[in-house]
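Table S2 (continued). Query chain:
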Amino acid sequence: MRIGAALALSMAMTPAAFAGGGFEIVIPGRPGVPVIINGVDASYAVVEGDWGLGKGTHVQPTVYGGRYVDPVPHVGRYYPSSGRMPGYGRMEIEPPANRKLPQPAESYHQSWSAQSAPLPAQSNVPVDPPAIIYAPQGERRGPPFPR
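Corresponding output:
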């Protein structure tokens, strides 16, 4: 009986030892967030040769079915540091210096403040102070701690 159990256990554990040599299909953890491997979007593609953290060595993975991702996307935004004009959008026109100016706006001022409530009146010395009780100064006898 023991030999049969040991044989069944060894047969069940053998395929698990050889499980790291196949291929994997990459499924992103969040929709819309691509999985990038070496500049290739590997979302829903087949990756071969990636061992991850299972082995102590690193093998360059091969991605089948992925598409190349441009590391610096060319977007149509205007960056003043480059000195280029925007390709589309609002064209700024500088008005002439001798144009008729609009009426000045009326003055507006608003303020807020906060303060604490006033404290009640306090007397320095109570009229009838409590009596003072002195502790005895003699030596204590008996056990050091009450039981």
